[in-house]
Amino acid sequence: MDVLKKQDVIDVIEHVNDDHSAEMLSIAQVFVDGDAQRATLVDVNESGLEIRIESPTGTRQHALAFSFSGEAEDKILFLAYQAMVKQRKVLDGAKTRYLRFVERQTLTPHMLRLVFASDTPLPHNEPGYAFFFLLRTLRPKKRYQESELSKMPFAMRVWFSGILWVMKKLKPPARRKLLKAMYKNSRYYTLRATVPNSAPSSDHHIAWVDVFTHGQSPGGDWAKSLTPGDWVRSTADYREKTNHLHTGQALLIADETAMPSLAALLEQWKNPVVPVVIVISQDAAEQDYIDPSLVPTDAQIHRIVSDHEQLRERLLTLLESLPPIDAAWGALEQQDAKAVRAFLRQHHGLSTGQNRVRGYWQRDS
Question: What is the pTM of this model?
C-alpha cells in the first residue's frame, strides 16, 4: 500500500500543475529533455514522480526517482530547485530557498549556530535579515529510512484563502491564537552572517543562522535534530528596517532571541555617534554572545539579567536614566516591546519611523 493516500496524490497533482508549471518544465528540461516545451505532473508516490512531456518530437511520459525522503510536495519542489539552479533561474521570485545543513556549533548554553551552504547567493551586510524556515527536512535516502506519512494536506492554498476571510471576522485574541496554530511548524531565524567558503573550488555560499533554544520548543527541537547533508526550506524572508539608526543618538535593545540581529548591527555600525545598547537575558551566561569587541568604543552598554516578572520594571527604570534618544531599534517579548515603544514615544517624542521596537515572540498567558 502506498504511503500517499489517493486524495493526497490528487491534491499534490492539482496544486503542482496549477501553481508550479514553470518548475515542472525546468525539471523536464534538465533531467529528461532539453527541448521540452511543456511538462505536466501525472502521478507521484513516495518513490518518485511521473511527468508528461511535450516537445517538438512528440509527447511522452517519463518517471523520475526521488533521491531524498520527506513530504511529497517538498521533494517535487526540491527537484525543481535543483533544476532551476542548473538553469540559473530563481524559484518563486527568490523567496523560496533551499539550504544544506553543514554543521552545528554551540555558542552559549542556549544559542546554537547552524551552518548552511546555499547554491544561490545570500544577502550580505543586512542586519536582521531572517529566513522563514519550515520545521522539517529533506534527507538523503541512503542515510534515512522514511517511516511516516506526510501529516499536512496539500490543498493548502484553497484552505488559506478561506482562513484569511475568517481571520478578518475574528477578535484580536482569537486571531492571534489562530495565527499561532497556522505557523506552529514554521519559524523566522536570523542570518547572523554570510561568510566566504573555505573551499576555493566551490560556488556554495555559507550562512550562519544563530538560533536561541529555550526549553522544549518545536524550533529548538528542529535545530538540534538536523544532520549534516539535510536540506531545509525557507519560504519567505524578513528584512529589518535600520536606516533610521544612521544619524543621531540611537538606542538598541535585544533579548536572547534578538541577539543575532544586534550583533550584526554592531558589527556593521555606520553612525558616527556611538549607540546606547541594552542586552537582556534570563541567564547571565547568554550575555557572552554579545562580546565586548562587537560594541563600538565608548558606547554605553547595559546588561540586564532578569526573570520575566521583574524585567519590564527594571528595563523602564533604566530607560528613565538615559540621555535623549533620537532613534531606537529593539526586539524582545511582545508586551515588553509595546511598553518600551510607549515609553520612547511619550518621553523621547519618537515617531513610528524612529521607534522600531518589535515583539519577536509572545509570552504564554
Answer: 0.72
